[in-house]
Amino acid sequence: MSTPHTTPDFNDTFLKACRMEPVDHIPVWFMRQAGRYQPEYRKIKQQYSLTEIVERPEVCTEVTLLPVRQLNVDAAILFADIMTPIGPMGIPNQILPNKGPHIPNPVRSVKDVESIRIPDFAESLPYVGETIRNLSRALKVPLIGFCGAPFTLASYIIEGGPSKSFHYTKTMMYREPEMWASLMKKLVAGMAAYLTYQVDNGAQALQIFDSWVGHLSRQDYDRYVFPYMSDLFGRLKKTLPVPVIHFGVHTGHLLERMQAAGGDVIGIDWKTSLPEAWKRLQYKVAVQGNLDPTLLFAPEPLLKERIYALLDRIDRPGFIFNLGHGVLPPTEVSTLQRVTEWVHAYRPADVMNG
Ligand code: CP3
After folding, report:
1. Is 121 in the pocket of ligand 1 (CB under 6 A)?
2. Is residue 2 part of a domain?
3. Residue owning the nearest CA to atom 21 of ligand 1
């Protein structure tokens, strides 16, 4: 286990905000901060596929560091995909350009679920551990490790790829509840092992992406997702000394249930008012979000107006500035640089003093 950074020039503002401690500036990072919006990333992608980047620790380290240097953000996020641990679990998959994950043999039967295994990730993904160790040495900000949440992963491996209706996923949930339960349990065990592997190698915070869970009603969340998310967060809390961010999109109707399932920080998407969401969560957790990613294409005065409208309503420690979902490929690097500067320059007394 590598020790956390304690050097004087290490910027731990993001970790302080996760723990709801006072900070001297509001920490900022961006979901999908490494990606196609960066000319340097597009250049690397001419030579390597996403999977090839992940498999090459020197390249993957550079790709992870690039936005940290370019944008001056307060956290790095490991460059990988939510599908990275899924191949080693016995489900072959690819990431198709401009489409996303593709699973040639989707998981649809009891036999398919039974064949899923929990690997030793140090053996099957040694390059991920090596990248994290490289990053821990190079970074002056915390490194966020991550995984997909069981529902979001299940939706890809059952559908075979991205979906709009989640027809096969929900059919399994409703018609084959036992098969669904054993699949979710396997994904919980797999992700607990994968996240533990990341922290053992130096990840200082974790984010669990339940990107598509907002497609479920509250009733279905409670029955088909909540027990597994509680189990996953319970295991992490018992064994790992790092804060965990719990994120989903279109989840305004689920926030209290997501909070009850677990997480030190709840990610808020842009459709929900973040200050109102925080109040609903009774200020018992930190919150992260939630600028609409398409506001980065708005004229500067409107963009500024919306950012300050959000910041002006933050009246206590425990806020991390981010977008409500990932950076979109046409975004300008300079826009993200300016947003980071504005948020960093903001000095709300309440956030500084607690
Ligand atoms: O800085 C970072 O955040 C980069 C690391 C990262 C990637 N994927 C790299 C990637 C992270 C954290 C992810 C998570 C991920 N992957 C999620 C959860 C986050 C979210 O957006 O909700 C999901 C649902 C996936 C599955 C996935 N992978 C999708 C939907 C896509 C996009 C398809 C496309 O091409 O638009 C991918 C591919 C992918 N993963 C890209 C990147 C940078 C873009 C394609 C590429 O550069 O080859």
Report:
1. no
2. no
3. 326
- Evaluate if residue 2 carries a pLDDT over 90: no
Please indicate whether residue 101, judged by its CB atom, sits closer than 6 Å to ligand 1.
Answer: yes
Mean pLDDT of the chain: 96
Q: Which of 28, 31, 32 has the most ligand 1 atoms within 8 A of CB, as the residue to mutate?
A: 32
Note whether residue 7 is domain-resident.
no
Residue among 81, 159, 247 to mutate when testing ligand 1 (max atoms within 8 A of CB): 81
Q: Give pLDDT tens digits for 57-67.
A: 999 999 999 99
pTM for the whole structure: 0.96
Contacts of residue 40, Cβ cutoff 8 Å, sequence gap at least 6: 66, 70
SS3 316: coil
Give the pLDDT mean for 141-161. 98
Does residue 77 line the site of ligand 1, with CB under 6 A? yes
* Half-sphere exposure of residue 175: CA atoms within 13 angstroms, side-chain side: 9
Q: Whose CA is nearest to atom 42 of ligand 1?
A: 35
Contact 17, 319 (CB under 8 A): yes
* CATH number of the domain within which 62 lies: 3.20.20.210
What separation in Å is there between the alpha carbon of 81 and the centre of ligand 1? 6
In a domain, residue 252? The reply is yes
**294 in a structural domain:** yes
> Residue 179: what residue type?
M
- Domain range enclosing 23: 13-353
State the total domains in the chain.
1
Using DSSP bridges, classify how beta strands 143-148 and 76-77 pair: parallel, antiparallel or unpaired.
parallel
